Amino acid sequence: MEPVLKVSHLKKYFPMGNNQILKAVDDVSFEIYQGKTLGLVGESGCGKTTCGRTCTGLYSRTGGQVLFKGQDVHEMRGKDRKDFTKKVQTIFQDPYASLDPRMKVNDIIAEGIRIHHMASKKEEREIVQELLRQVGLQSEHANRYIHEFSGGQRQRIGIARALAIHPEFLVCDEPISALDVSIQAQIVNLLREMQDKMGLTYLFVAHDLSMVRHISDQVAVMYLGKIVELTSSDELYSHPVHPYTQALLSAIPIPDPDVEATRERIVLKGDVPSPISPPKGCRFRGRCKYATAKCGGIEPKMKQIGTGHFVACHLYNKEDA
Ligand code: SF4
Asked: What is the pTM (predicted TM-score) of this model?
């Protein structure tokens, strides 16, 4: 089966002046298949949002390739480009910033339908009503403004807006990060429900691993512009191997006081280095308790260590030279 999205050696650099270059995404590869979700996880500033935006063509690429159903996203023109903008939608982190506060909910949701001439005025009203129902809101909400809703309701409106033009692929860019934990679960459940009903494919960007588990089939852990571990969700949570992944997982609280009191928490030292001048060799070496001289001199390559389990770390790739 051909993947819906195939990202190969993608690079996105930003010139910063003074001959400096910010390498936000640096040689990233992954595939997402129809009806599946890839969780892209890492600390703020690791490049995950930039990666998502480059995959949707919002940013140009510096190198590599993004194929959507076999077509190069950055080479699409004319009708192909228009079709792509219909099939690929983004749900943003802050719905209050991404939805126009001067528009009524009805117009926010219907905007894409109008742009793509997908329905008559009467049909449009019915579609909006149905979408509101599907995302758990009521029909009278169509006549209200965005400031009249809670954070969770606004995100539901953002989801309805994204679904209005029958997309096939959604980039969910930290859609739950600004929400309370109880609301986060509701939004994740809603996204899963919509995925099952409509066969949607997701790239789910998040900064911690706790909620990602409940929606992702595969998880890619990113650090300073690179993917350091990529595997199935079950494997990542049961057998994390990269020291960074282990640290991220150890930060998730366990709702059992006995287990929580006895388990080891890995506290990472220092801050994430600047992506303008990342460390040579392994980018994680300044914070890794297993770092050796080799880690400072040679960049670890991605290596398969099990079925569908890839890691970039010298502890698992003795052949790196
Ligand atoms: Fe740590 Fe070295 Fe592995 Fe990097 S390559 S994660 S520094 S052991």
From this structure: 0.91
